[in-house]
Write a structure and sequence with these properties.
The chain contains eight helices and six strands; from the N terminus they run αβαββαβαβαααβα. The protein has about 280 residues and is an alpha/beta fold. This is G domain-containing protein.
Length: about 280
């Protein structure tokens, strides 16, 4: 059985400094938009909060935990909407934010409501709103922004899917996610997948993360993910979160930075196109 290919089917730079500097220096082409907004969304335990922790760790240069992660949990640890800046006052903040939300659960009255996600994409949901699994947010409400600007909207939707659990996602969860995807399609919103836990899904990648784009198994998992969600392969990115490490590992950083570099341009393109409408 072939487990890996001799050549990478995606080229990746395994040096972090250049990518970090590129992202720090990135300029949004619309002067009125100060930050690109990314919404992380997916099943409980897929690694949404860990994604944000990993990104903040990279730019802090040390382990950083600001979002409570629900590793292998059946219930979401994130209960309210929270935009997370990247960077700090000393070194400066980067021109993008990642928003953490409650995870998707299969039961109708559990987890985040699809309508709440749609409202968030459109910029109606204010920071610190506590999600209600039974009743989605609507106006008038202190946490409902009636007339959001382009800066309030999300500029890219990031699905977070665990590579080793794609086949285990139940139909109800998929239907909820497809409802959100349908709305995002109507908004012409960029949509990408962060495919987490690649080290768990593939022993070759676990031994050496640099084999991720040589792994036949990872490629097949990406294809499975593409079929399940309807997201094209070139918008699916395998990533590895920090979850047990206490030291910085450059290969983990590089895989995430490669992905960030791509999606920041996707989001900036959306802002430009939206402005032209």
């Amino acid at each position: 059985m072939i487990t890996f290919e001799l050549n990478e089917w995606r080229e990746l730079q395994w040096k972090q400094d250049g990518m970090i500097n590129t992202l720090r220096d990135f300029k949004i082409r619309n002067d009125k938009v100060k930050q690109l907004n990314f919404l992380v969304y997916g099943p409980v335990g897929a690694g949404k909060s860990s994604i944000i922790n990993t990104i903040k760790t990279i730019f802090e240069g040390r382990q950083y935990i600001s979002c409570l992660a629900a590793q292998d949990s059946a219930k979401s640890q994130t209960l309210k909407f929270k935009k997370c800046d990247v960077g700090n006052t000393k070194d400066g903040f980067l021109p993008f934010t990642f928003s953490d939300i409650m995870g998707v659960e299969k039961e109708n009255q559990c987890g985040v409501q699809a309508d709440d996600i749609i409202s968030t994409l459109k910029g109606h949901v204010k920071d610190d709103y506590v999600f209600n699994p039974i009743s989605p947010l609507s106006g008038p409400n202190d946490y409902y922004l009636e007339h959001p600007s382009l800066s309030d909207r999300m500029h890219c939707l990031v699905y977070v899917i665990a590579a080793d659990k794609i086949s285990l996602i139940d139909k109800d969860t998929i239907q909820k996610m497809q409802k959100v995807r349908g709305t995002a399609n109507g908004m012409d919103l960029p949509q990408v997948v962060f495919m987490t836990r690649v080290d768990v899904a593939c022993s070759l990648t676990k031994e050496n993360l640099r084999h991720v784009y040589k792994s036949v198994k990872i490629e097949k998992k990406m294809e499975e993910c593409s079929v399940t969600l309807g997201v094209p392969m070139n918008c699916i990115f395998p990533v590895r979160n920090y979850y047990k490490e206490t030291d910085i590992i450059e290969d983990i950083n590089c895989l995430m930075l490669h992905t960030l570099t791509k999606i920041v341009h996707f989001a900036d393109d959306y802002v430009v196109e939206y402005t032209r409408k």
